[in-house]
Automatic annotation (TrEMBL):
Belongs to the TRAP transporter small permease family. This is TRAP-type C4-dicarboxylate transport system, small permease component. It is found in: Cell inner membrane. It comes from Alicyclobacillus macrosporangiidus. It is a multi-pass membrane protein. The keyword Nucleotidyltransferase does not apply. The chain crosses the membrane at residues 20-38, 50-67, 93-112, 132-151. It holds the Pfam family DctQ.
């Protein structure tokens, strides 16, 4: 169990570092884009395409991190009125829905990545599927995080 906890902590740090790195890359690219436009009167053609790709990656990684930290929007004013045993059941159902959502992201994201991999982004020439490769990765993380929450509610993992 300790190895599992260590592995999850390591994975959490990696996901957070990846998110921070992607944010930094976005800021640097946008800064360079604006600086080039106003100082050199020339906008790099690649900058918009790359910042959009990085933004997609950041968004999907943030979705998975949000599920891990249970930071997504939740309206509880009705559920709070239920008995505790029912609240726990609803929480388990939510965790199962998160796992299901992650499965859909993983499978459909994988299919979409394969479908778009052969086409190329117009400016950089990178595979178009590179933009969407993050979807199955974020889906797999979401499944993992949902299972961890579900097992922690059962008292099997903390």
């Amino acid at each position: 169990m300790d190895r599992l906890k260590q592995a999850m902590r390591w994975l959490d740090r990696m996901v957070e570092w990846l998110g921070a790195y992607l944010m930094l890359v976005m800021v640097v690219i946008v800064f360079w884009q604006v600086f080039s436009r106003y100082v050199f009167h020339h906008t790099p053609a690649w900058s918009e395409e790359m910042v959009l790709t990085v933004m997609q990656w950041f968004g999907f990684i943030s979705i998975a991190a949000g599920f891990r930290q249970q930071m997504h929007l939740r309206i509880t004013f009705i559920v709070d009125r239920f008995p505790k045993w029912m609240q726990r059941g609803i929480d388990k159902a939510i965790d199962l829905l998160v796992v299901l959502y992650g499965c859909v992201l993983t499978v459909e994201g994988y299919r979409f990545t394969l479908l778009t991999w052969s086409s190329r982004l117009p400016v950089t020439g990178l595979p178009n599927g590179l933009q969407y490769l993050v979807i199955p990765a974020a889906g797999a993380l979401t499944v993992l995080y949902g299972l961890v929450h579900l097992l922690s509610r059962e008292g099997k993992v903390r």
